[in-house]
Write a structure and sequence with these properties.
11 strands, homodimer, Stationary-phase Survival Protein Sure Homolog, Chain: A, 26% helix, alpha/beta, nine-stranded mixed sheet
Chain lengths: 265, 265
């Protein structure tokens, strides 16, 4: 049976990244796009609960063989709506991206691109979150195109009952400069915020822009996604859909928190 | 030195849950509240990147000894702003909640309450996400109050260099009915969505409300958070701040994806 591929992104359906991804995916099966009408960058795993969602069919934007819809909802809403109201069977693959800007390390938590892939995995579907190091809408996507093809072929060839959710980051380099694809783990890091203070032009009120510097806790480690990208590899990190910290759970059960002994209050 | 406790939530600063939490926390140290002015339920780990944030000091709402600020930003923005622009030292504890409605299982991904606690842990601070099973703003919070006190005392007494991030869910029962606090793992589950279709009152346009039913993949397991709550325990799950799936990473490295062999394209 022909493969069924569901595509969304968090930059909105017009972005060059998703149009590129649609062109790649068409070589591998029937493509259905359900994408947001606007950008949801930094909106993580958001769902729209407090207002309704509008969805309309999109004609004459993507190639004719692509079934496409635009939604006022988030990337997560798009995946949910596709699975429940549009697709007649479970897709073989969810693709999210190609995002303009990287989503390595803890940015995986903030990213709508990654959130959509995780939502696919929640539903038992292999998923790829695809992000490019450059924020430039005219960035060179040649390497991303080559490596996305390889990853789609790999995903379709693996024999894994549980869904695989891969967070993929492409470095901003020419294909000839690439050292290949590297399985990695997420870099331990934090954003050191700097809120830029400005004053409203029409009234004496201060406002703040959230900006910050990324601080890498382990620049020397060679098995991280950030190291891979900085060293001309495409970084591929399998993501968990279970946020439980089992190590700490075991530690707390055996010698940490004593709460287990305070049964009845 | 007096403990410094930072509090936020995702229901907005007026909610009864956060007011209750402030009253509890005052017994343990100096409390600073930086909370959203409106509800951000279901907005996960969202940050505000596309517009500025307004923050103002809040007077005469919480008790006088509480330092309080209200922000137009998300719960995550609130934590970031507090750490960078308000607090003069790193707090000893981040408290998020008490949320009106539960955040067990995969709801941890969708929840702004949990997102704020994870943001605290990113910054090296012990954090508690606190959620009550009932959505009723007038729910009985007596058990939540008792157990939150125990958990704050436990957190302050543990000797763990790495920050501990606990996702806490209180059952909607009387304290006398409680069987205690139970260390658990997140339940494997999914939301089976049902989009309710309606028509706009003023124009012939359909819209959709996102609703759904929670589907538990492992109702028989006794070590899950949902089992704990349904059996009159307060569920406590340590959360990871590293989304890497190490088991799958190892599997892919050794026998799964062959991408590691395709070094140079």
């Amino acid at each position: 049976m022909e493969k069924l591929i569901l595509i969304t992104n968090d930059d909105g359906y017009r972005a060059r990244g998703i149009r590129t991804l649609v062109d790649i995916a068409r070589e591998y099966g029937h493509v259905v796009v359900v994408a947001p009408e606007k950008s949801w960058s930094g909106k993580s795993h958001s769902v729209t609960l407090d207002q309704p969602i509008y969805v309309h069919a999109l004609e004459n934007f993507y190639p004719q063989d692509v079934e496409a819809y635009v939604s006022t909802g988030t990337p997560i809403d798009c995946i949910k709506f596709a699975l429940n109201n549009i697709l007649t069977r479970k897709p073989d693959l969810v693709l999210s991206g190609i995002n303009h800007g990287p989503n390595y390390s803890i940015n995986s938590y903030y990213s709508g691109t990654v959130g959509a892939a995780i939502e696919g995995a929640f539903n038992g579907i292999h998923s790829l979150a695809l992000s490019h190091e450059s924020f430039d809408p005219d960035a060179n996507l040649s390497l991303a195109i080559e490596h996305t093809k390889i990853l789609i072929e790999e995903i379709f060839s693996i024999n894994n009952e549980a869904p695989v959710c891969l967070n993929v980051n492409f470095p901003d380099i020419e294909p000839a400069e690439s050292k290949g694809i590297r399985l990695s783990r997420l870099t331990r890091a934090v954003w050191k915020e700097e809120f830029v203070e400005r004053t409203h032009p029409g009234r004496p009120q201060k406002y703040y822009w959230l900006t910050g510097k990324f601080y890498n806790f382990e620049p020397e480690a060679h098995d991280t996604d950030l190291w891979a990208i900085k060293n001309n590899y495409t970084a591929v990190v399998p993501l968990t859909i279970d946020l439980t910290d089992y190590k700490t759970l075991q530690k707390l059960k055996t010698k940490g928190l004593t709460i287990k002994n305070k049964k009845q209050l």
